[in-house]
Structure formats: C-alpha cells, structure tokens
Amino acid sequence: MDEDIIYSGPLGHVAQQLARPAGTDPSDVYAAAVSWWSAAIAPAVSLSMRPSAPLSVWTTFVESNGHGLPPLQDVLRPALQAAAPLLTHHDVSDVQLFGSAGHTTRRAGRMGRAVSTFLLTGSPFRQSRGRPTISLSLEAHLRRAWDGQDRLPSRGKRRNRLYGAPAPPHVGVLWEVALDEWKTFRSTDAATYSRTLHFSRRATLEAVPDASGAPEKDWQQLLTDAYTWAFQTKFVLTCTPRAGAKWDAIRKAENVWFAVLPEHEADFFVRTGDHVLRIAGTLAATECTAIHGRHIDAAWSLVRRSILDTLQLNAVRLEKVLPVVTRLNGAVFGVTGPEGTAPPFSPDGASPYRPASENPILPASRRNVSSTKLLKQWYEDRCQMCGEVLVLPAPLNRYSEGAHIRARGDGGPDTVENLLCLCPNCHVLFDFGARALTDDLRIIDTVTGTHLGQLNVHRWHRIDVRFIRHHRRRWHK
Fold it and tell me: In sequence order, what are the residues at sequence separation of 6 or more whose Cβ sits closer than 8 angstroms to the Cβ of residue 439?
C-alpha cells in the first residue's frame, strides 16, 4: 500500500527524471521536491482554509539502512534552484544559528537576491555528552514558524530595532538525519515531531513510474512559469467541492489513532489533515489552479507513506494500524461525484486561477480579496449568530459586517481567525459584551446568562480560541 504513490504534475516529473540517476527512491525525491517548492512559494501563496498558516511542507528523511545515498538537497538543487530559487542553511542546531539564517535571508531579500523564505537542511540535532539532542529554544521557534506565528530571535537591541518590524521570513525544512538522531523525536516532547513528515530513505534500482497526466512541455519551464505566476498573482488557494469532501474525510478521522496507538505515537497524526492540505496546495500551485480531488489523492498517498514509515521506525506492529489506514484510504478514494468548481477570490468575481489552455499573468487589479470579503463570501452575508440575512434595496442587495473578535484597537489582526460575519445588531451586541462565545463556540447572552445556541461556522473558517478568550476577559473579568 505504501508503494502506491501518486505522482502529480511537474513535481512528479522531477521525481521521474532525478531519482534513477541518483540511485534513490522516486517517492523520496518527490516528497523532497514538494518540500522545496512549498518553501519557495510560501511568501506568495496562501490557503483559504488556513489563512494564517504558511504553505510549507516540512519533511525529515531518516537514513536507517546505511545505503550511503546522496543528500536530497544536492539531488534537487541543480533542477529546482533556477525555477524556484531558495536560500538553504545547513545543520542549524541552535536558536542563534536560526536567527542568523533568518537575518541573512532578510538582507538578501532587501538586496533583491532572494525572497522572504529559507530552507533548513542537514540536521537540527547536536551532540551533548555523546548523545544527539535538539535545542528546546530552537524547537519552540520551529513550532511557531510552522504555525505562522514566529518572530526572529533578537541579535541585540540595535539589530532588533533595525530588523524587528518586518514580518520574519518563512521557514522550510528538509532534514536528513541518522536513525539515532531521529529517535530523539520519540524520546522528547519535541512539538516539531507532528509538524514534519517522516520518511525512511530508500535506494532503488526499479524503473521509475510515469506521472499520471504528465504535461508535454518541459517541467522546468512549467515550474518557472508557475513560480512567476504565484508571485505576480498572490492568489489564495481554494478547494473544489470534491477536494473539500476528501479533505473533510481525512480531518474527521484524525482522532481515531488514539484508539489504537499509545498517546505519543498517536500525537504524530493529529495534523494529518494539515499535511495533506499543504501538499495538495503545493501540487495545485505548480499548475496554477485550485485544489482538485486529484491533488488530495496525491497528497494523501505521500502522507500515507509517511505514516507507515513513521510507525515502522517506531517499531509499531503494522497490523494494529493497517485497518485504520485502509479505512482512511476508503474515505479518501471513496468520494464520488462531480469535481465542481472552486469559489473565486477576486474583487471582480473572476477566477484567480490560470486555465490549463492559457498562460497569462493576472493584472494587479485581480488580487485576492480582503479577509472580510472572503468571510462574507463563505457565509453569503448570513449572520453567524442569529442566521439572518439583511436584504437592502439595490445596489447593495445583501449586507453583513466583519466583526473583529479581538478589537483592532486592542491589537487584533485583520485575519479570518479573528473575524465573524455578523448582522449589524449582533455586531453591536458582541462588540459591547452583551454577546460572548465559549471555547466550544456556543453563544451566551451575558445579560441573562442564557445559552442561545451554537455559532454557525463554515468548514473553512478556523476561529482562534485565543481571541475568543481575550474578548471574554475584556468584558467579563
């Protein structure tokens, strides 16, 4: 089952053409190429379902069989550096090196030599008393970087004033570690454990499979075109209905692992849905299109291999988990029905995606809409609290308001995680504390103390509970 990798688009061609000469498994090259490409375009492309999280797919490759295989970054660099330029930093094992890598990337960006992203290669582990360890401070920065919340470590007050204001660069990870180093993930509570996809390196002498739907054009030119498209368009990736149904099936099954595995092993799988979404978004971005069902299928095939490799590296008996993997397989590939179309996210209503038969670059006027407009499109101006749609005479027709959970004047960001789509009445009641939300998104009338029901939440709307708690503390200390 773990061999049934679905190779998709230009990155599938990367795996085909580079794997055999390097004597390594094509799925290893494929996963590494996804990791490289996702980091390269992370500053330009975002996911409508996870607006604040970067697109980056983090991978860790474990050399457990002594094959002596070439580093994957060396295999990829000649092929991808021209199409998707990326600064790499090797063996970043402490927070000082991490901060230096970020500042180097930022300086290169100001000089026009790089974009705001860098890739960590080699190993994050260092030897301490003869044993590999991972720095807890570095691990904390890595965890926040994966979540899209990090700030670069300060390099002194003067440096902090100079570099502290702009957003930090995006971070990608393509680690290649020895088995004894990788076991450190198991022996500690490192939060990066569940944020990276783990693969066991493999050698191969087998014929490389063809990528399904392989385009006729040279894949390097396709990637170059897609990279240019991403940075000139700055589009937001959305899912077609079929892709959304497949992704929902994966997300709903995330907690099933705790029924068959010890907690530490099960913790790895709590972000399975996020990994699938990021890989699918990366593959879709190479085609300048929305996320389709085929992208979810291809992404799941890579994540499935990572699941099985991780369990084998942890010496877990696979017969315990194969029924779960089989059930997930059926849930993903069992989704039927038409593909449908993804919702557009442009001010003029036009699709931000490039049709397969065209190769234009969208003008700046067709950039993605603001978070508030995005939210109103999701809910079609229906109030999340009372369910009413306020209808007005033309030209407005329908009216709703984007309500900040944590007020902008109090440091609240303009992101969908901090916004609600409300009618004017509920907006005023919420802004002045007469309505509040519990952590599980139940609506409370704070005047009478009664529960008014559950907040309506679109499947792509992820509300940050920290903003909800801040709202409650502000009005109900």
Answer: 465, 468, 469
